[in-house]
Amino acid sequence: MNLSDEQDALTSVRRLKQYSVDGVIVSSSTLPPEFSKAFRDAGVPVVNSFGRFSTTPDVHVVGVDNSECGSMAARELAARGYASVGFMGGPETATSTQDRFRGFSQELAKHPDVARRHSFASDYSFDAGRAEMQRLIADGPLAEAYFCGDDVLSIGALSALADAGLNVPRDIGIIGFNDMEMARWENINLTTIGQPIEQIIHSYVELIVAMLDDPDRYPEVRLFPCKMVERGTLRPVP
């Protein structure tokens, strides 16, 4: 179910119960934490895929360490000698955006010679990424490279840069996040940060089944590491 536009957690619980679901995986970083808690309180096994690390989580959390992934992107850009870099995230209120931006900023603080800036797209979509990069181009000057908080934002940004006559990676570097299938297309060839999707999905299923067997199971957090996926949208390491 798409609950991204839902405002009331209890309404979402009622909608889910109409389908007699056995468990819920919350895969939106824009939904408030209250939604996951409402599912839990209604007796529905729930796993949050965009939660944050905590020693006392309210619900089970499975995903990646978004802050570390942001740090990884910053390290990569600094290592390639970019003198100015930018973060182009999704919605500023999304926990995934906040965490990736925090890690990105903290890592760049170790590189005072690298100028940095940031901006946020209206949502995680091609159109939003394209529109935000068009705005950045119009406002100018651009950073030498950008970490886009999602592959779909990156692909939108690439479209805007191409329309402006800018070459990637010669003029501008782009690094994405997710390693979605389109990132591998020859005409996109996006350098990105990949997630261990198979491990994450296995943990989703494992925890949902475990909660069905033991409804009082204590919530845990499982965060998996990401990895750089080298393609063709960043200049080589000097």
Automatic annotation (TrEMBL):
The record's listing under InterPro entries reads: LacI/GalR-like_sensor, Peripla_BP_I
Swiss-Prot/TrEMBL keywords? DNA-binding, Transcription, Transcription regulation
The residue ranges of the Transcriptional regulator LacI/GalR-like sensor domain are: 75-233
Asked if the record carries the keyword Transcription, the reply is: yes
Q: Does the keyword Transcription apply?
A: yes
Cite the GO molecular-function annotations of the record: DNA-binding transcription factor activity; transcription cis-regulatory region binding
Sorted alphabetically, which CDD domains does this protein's record hold?
A: PBP1_LacI-like
Q: PANTHER family from the entry? A: HTH-TYPE TRANSCRIPTIONAL REGULATOR GALS, LACI-RELATED TRANSCRIPTIONAL REPRESSOR
Q: What is this protein called?
A: Transcriptional regulator LacI/GalR-like sensor domain-containing protein
| UniProt organism field | Octadecabacter arcticus 238
